[in-house]
Each structure stands twice: as structure tokens, then as C-alpha cells.
Amino acid sequence: MSDSLLNQINSPADLKKLSRAELHRLAGELRQYVVDSVSKTGGHFSSNLGTVELTIALHTVFDTPRDRIVWDVGHQTYPHKILTGRRDRMHTLRQFGGLSGFPRRDESEYDTFGTAHSSTSISAAHGMAMAAKLKGEERRAIAVIGDGAMTAGMAFEALNNAGVAHGGLMGDLLVILNDNDMSISPPVGALNKYLTRLMSGSLYGEVREGAKSVLKNTPLYEFARRFEEHTKGMFVPGTIFEEFGFNYVGPIDGHDLDALIPTLENLKHKRGPQFLHVITKKGQGYKLAEADPVKYHGPTPFDPLQGIQPSTKPAKKSFTQVFGEWLCDQAEADQKLVGITPAMREGSGMVEFHKRFPTRYYDVGIAEQHAATFAAGLACEGLKPVLAIYSTFLQRAYDQLIHDVALQNLDVTFALDRAGLVGADGATHAGNYDIAFTRCIPNMAVLTPADERECRQLLSTAYQHPGPATVRYPRGAGCGADPGKDLSVLPWGTGELRREGQGGVAILAFGTLLYPALQAAEGLDATVANMRFVKPLDGALVERLARSHRLLVTLEDACVMGGAGSAVLEHLNAIGLSVPVLQLGLPDTFIEHGDPALLMAQCGLDAAGIERSIRARLGQPTLRAVNGA
Ligand SMILES: Cc1ncc(C[n+]2csc(CCOP(=O)(O)OP(=O)(O)O)c2C)c(N)n1
Ligand SMILES: CC(=O)[C@@H](O)[C@H](O)COP(=O)(O)O
Ligand SMILES: [Mg+2]
Fold first, then answer.
1. Which positions are annotated as binding thiamine diphosphate (predicted)?
2. Which of 289, 346, 257, 253 has its CA nearest to residue 34?
């Protein structure tokens, strides 16, 4: 399109040449571009529709990348990517070798801080602002944080630190609260209630209307000054953010460039910690997403004219669904069960549980640390908490896992979803470390189901075990094993032999890689054990296999370092058995985003790769080489 404004924007410098009327037009084009590209690639949708105007305003007013914008989570940065020279690569978003779905320092100089786990922006921007002071550089740091991300303790730790002077210095930090009254699901907690009170009432609406008419006749700078005084003085006399030492401005309409630009111009000239509260709508401009921002939070590709349609193909049940059904059945059977999620109701499969057991359901907000210690408190009183949490987000609660749960041997079941590689979200969301970081904790049991049926059985087993236990399972579906409906348990700490081979090799599989292992075993005539437990490890089975095979191969969809294979080696060492062990798992590197099957194959963790590695270890040619392929 020759008259497209968006096509002329190759960096923020181009924005600065546009008139206000052109910026308005650009916002429409940018929004349409987001709809067109994300509906093709899939990705975070509704949050990005909500940040179109804010992104334009920020890059128009501030001198980026010299002024640092730190986006919290970063799932709302597609407009930012499009305006900072990456428009033509949006079709590669979240695909192997393509643009990341989150900000990355190695992707663009405009991505000042790598994110994807929430609530880090204020800390990072505060660090940047203080660094500017210490280095004598004149620039601003801006943290853009959502109302959901604002619920995390880390955000308040940062406010607490940033709102006071250090060594006589205060950073020129601007925190922008992008308040759309939504997390992934509807927001929870007292902070949300407070923010709702801040923005409620007719006065906010009057400001929006008033702003537009005043602006027509007032020089921009003067307008911004008056606007700020107006909002501060009349509507929000003493906000919590002011108590933290910030100069609070707002709330203002985050879709109104005529309010955003002069307000930011004004704030740009202010020193010290500033706080701007903007109100936006998740899904803004795409009616279906406005009506159902949850459904449109992170969709797979869809037809933008039709919206997301129900799938016509019969889908395999995901591990998440297996967990959700088990949770309801177990809760039906045991009144003591309490289900907890740190802001991941949909992703963790707890929608039905919430509906059926509202008083035993807790969404604690983005607060993984609190979730773990809250579970510990419940367990102290004899209740049976089940904390559903993505493996990657449990990293946030490591001290709580040790100090509050395991040290007191409290009966908490951790349902660890998204274990192993997750695909499009990439390295930030990969659950590669949980085996290594949980198995070293005394009292903690670590269970690795191989398929959907075993997932249900091991959830019951962990739940009945009177102590802390994690059950880890991957994103998506497994081999399709019917999970059944019973709540039976498996014998504690025991694996099973799934194939007895004569090839002298025994594969000890932990988790869903059992199935590619069984395939690989065919060509090698290998023995295959489904180990089920990393801890307690089935030492007797390990010993038996070690005594009867010339090579043991451990296999896990988790980091090799410190993982299940290491547990096997430690056991062999402890009993004084020396046998060659090949440890297969994820390498000591961060794995990029991309199709999970492709990534697993690249790591040598598909059936062909497993067979190849074993043959290489045995000094045998691979079939490929034999066939001359
Ligand atoms: C530590 C952590 N926990 C959970 C998540 C998952 N998560 C990603 S976005 C999001 C909601 C964030 O809400 P908000 O900041 O208000 O942004 P919005 O989606 O409304 O634009 C959650 C819970 C995460 N990224 N990081
Ligand atoms: C940004 C974020 O953390 C979530 O939106 C995440 O992308 C969800 O991942 P799943 O699609 O695996 O639930
Ligand atoms: Mg929000």
C-alpha cells in the first residue's frame, strides 16, 4: 500500500516526523497489522491490541533506545517490535529461527531487557535508572507493567527500593501501570479492588472528555501540566504509589493519544520516581477479543474474519486436561483437597475445578512464592493442598519449596505442568530444570509419568503420599493412553520393565520419552525400563539392569546436569557398581523457540536420535551410514 503510514516507519525516529492526526491514523494501521499477523502466526493477541497507542506514544515522546523502555512479561511487545524495525519479520514470530515472542537483548537494541516471567520490569528499570545516575548519563528508564504483573511481590520490592534516595541519588524512573483489569484470567486480590476504586466513578470519564476539549485550545505542555494537577488534586489525593515515594499521575485513557502524548511529555521532564496509571482494554479494537480476552490471550492461528472456531478434529486429551479431571475427581473423594494456582487457571486446567469447588479453589495472583508458602500453611492444618504450577514458574518459589515445605516435611502435592521444552514460548518458559532442582531437596519426591494414564495414577500416588511430591508432565498430549477414572495408586518408588532385550543395552526412561525409547529399542534390541520415580529411585531395578547389561542409558526431557541420569550414577556409585552410563537429556544450553518435535529432534531426543546416540556410544555405525543415506 503506497499510502500506508506504517510502511514508512522503520524506527521510532520516523514516528517523530508524524503529525498528531497521522499518529492517530498510524494507530489504526498498527492495530490492523497486529490482527493480520498474529492471526496467521498465533501468539499473544489481546494484550498487544491493548498497547498500540501506548507504544506509539512512548516511542514518539522518548528518545529510544537511549531512554530505556522495559516491558514487563513482554507478551505485549508486538507493536513495539513492529515499530522498531521488525515489521517485516513478524511472520516468523515464535517460530524456529524467527522473532521471539518476548523482548530479547540480542534481537534488538530497543529490547533493553529480556523478559517473559512477570514483574521484573520495575527492578530492572530502577537498575538502569541508577546506573545512569552513577555514570552521569542523562536518560530515562521506563517500566511498563500490567495490573496482573503488579500483583507480584517482586514489583512491590522494587517500588519499595526505588521510591527513596540512595546515597543522595534518585533514579529518573517512570513506572507505567497498564491497567486493563485483566490478568490472563480475571484479576484477583485486594490490589485489583484498589485499582478499580481508583479508576471508577464518573469523574474519570469526565477527565477523558474534558481532556479532549481542553487540548484543542491549550499548548501541549501547559495542557499536560494542568491535566496532571487536575487528576492528582481532584481524584486521587493519596494513592498507595505516592506512599511509596512516587509522583502519581492518572488514571488516563491509554487508548487516547491526545491524553497519552502530552502526559508523557510532561513526565519526561520530571526528575525522580514517577508513576503513570493508564487504563486500557485487553483486545481493544477487535470485538471478539474485547468480549473474551481470555480466549484471545494466546491463540493458535485463526481466521480474523471468523474468529477462533471450535476444532473439528477429535483432539487427544492434553496432560493439562488429565490433571484437571483428576483434580475434580480427587476433590470429590476428599474434602480436604484445596487447589491453588498462581494466576494460571486456564493454562493449568483448573476452570472446571473452580466452577465445581469454588470455596476450595485459590487463584493467588502472580505470586508463586506466596502460593507455595500458603500451601504449606494449609498443610500444617491438615488440609491437602495441590499446587498446580508450570515448571518454569516454580523456579520463583525455590526457597519456599525448601524452607517452608520440604524442611517441615509438609504434605503438598506440586502438579508441574509444562515440564521439558514448551515450543513457541522458548527458553524462558522451558521446564528443563525441575528434576535437578527438586531432587536434591530432602523429603521431596519426584515423579515422572510416561503417559496420560500413568499421569493420573502418579498424581493419586503423590497425593496419598504423606509428604511433599512433584509430578511433572509436559505441554500438550502424550501417546493417547486413556487415563481412566479411578484414583488408584502405584507402588511407591518402583519402576517397571517394559521390554527385555538381548542387545546388552538397557534404557532407563524417566517420563514421556519412554515411547521414543521403546521405538529406538527395536533396532537395538535393547531393554527398556519405565522408571516412574526419580526420587525415591528404584535402586533395586537400577542394580539389576546394571548387573545384566554392558551399557545403561538414562533418558529424560530435562537437563542432563543434575538430572535423573545423575541420580542413577549416584546410586551406582553408592553401591560400588561400575558400569558405563550414557546420559541422554537436554544439553547445557538455552533452547530457542520453535516447534517442540523439531527441537526435541535437534537435541537428539526423538527415537532416531536416541538410537543414533546409543550406536555412537557402542561404536556401531548408524543405519543411515550403513545405508549410505
Ligand atoms: C512469574 C510469572 N508467572 C506467571 C506468568 C504467566 N503470565 C503471563 S502474562 C500473565 C498475565 C499478566 O497480566 P498483566 O500483567 O495484567 O498483562 P495483560 O495480560 O493484562 O496484558 C501471566 C499470569 C508469567 N509470565 N510469569
Ligand atoms: C506470557 C505467558 O507467560 C503466558 O501467556 C504463556 O505464554 C502461556 O503459555 P501456555 O500457552 O503454555 O499456557
Ligand atoms: Mg492486565
1. 75, 116-118, 148-149, 180, 286, 368
2. 289
Does the annotation place 522 within a ligand binding site?
A: no
Which atom of ligand 1 lies closest to the CA of 117? 26
Is the Cβ atom of 475 under 6 angstroms away from ligand 2?
A: yes
Residue 3 confidence class, pLDDT cut points 50, 70, 90 = confident
Instruction: Give the contacts of 561 (CB within 8 A, at least 6 positions apart).
Output: 436, 588
Secondary structure class of 514 (helix, strand, coil): helix
Whether the Cβ atoms of residue 96 and residue 426 lie closer than 8 Å to each other: no
Question: pTM of the predicted model, to two decimals?
Answer: 0.94
Residue 213, number of CB atoms within 10 A of its CB: 9
DSSP character at residue 84: I
Residue 39 among known ligand-binding residues = no
Residue 420's beta-bridge partner residues?
431
In the structure grid, which three cell numbers stand for residue 426, read together? 522458548
The CA distance from 60 to 440, in Å, is 50
How many C-beta atoms surround the C-beta of residue 23 within 10 A?
Answer: 20
Q: How far apart are CA 246 and CA 465, in angstroms?
A: 49
- CA–CA dist 583, 4 (Å, integer): 55
User: Does 180 show up as a binding residue in the annotation?
Assistant: yes
Ligand 1: which residue has its CA nearest to atom 4?
366
Of the candidates 13, 127, 120, 110, the one whose C-alpha atom is nearest the C-alpha of residue 66 is 110
Task: Count the Cβ atoms, other than its own, within 10 Å of residue 309.
Answer: 8
CA of 187 relative to ligand 1 center, distance in Å: 10
Are 612 and 622 within 8 A, CB to CB?
yes
Is any ligand 1 atom within 6 A of the Cβ of residue 56?
Answer: no
Residue 2 has pLDDT above 90, yes or no: no
How far is the centre of ligand 3, averaged over its atoms, from the C-alpha of 184 (Å)?
7
In this prediction, residue 547 has a pLDDT band, given cuts at 50, 70 and 90, of: very high
3-state class (DSSP) for residue 585: strand
Q: Is the CB of 345 under 6 A from ligand 2?
A: no
In this prediction, the answer to ipTM > 0.90 reads yes
Confidence of residue 227 (pLDDT cuts 50, 70, 90): low
* Single-letter amino acid code for the residue at 386: V
Residue nearest to atom 23 of ligand 1 (CA): 343
pLDDT band at 231 (very low <50, low <70, confident <90, very high): low
Q: Average of pLDDT values for 149-159?
A: 97
Length of the chain: 629
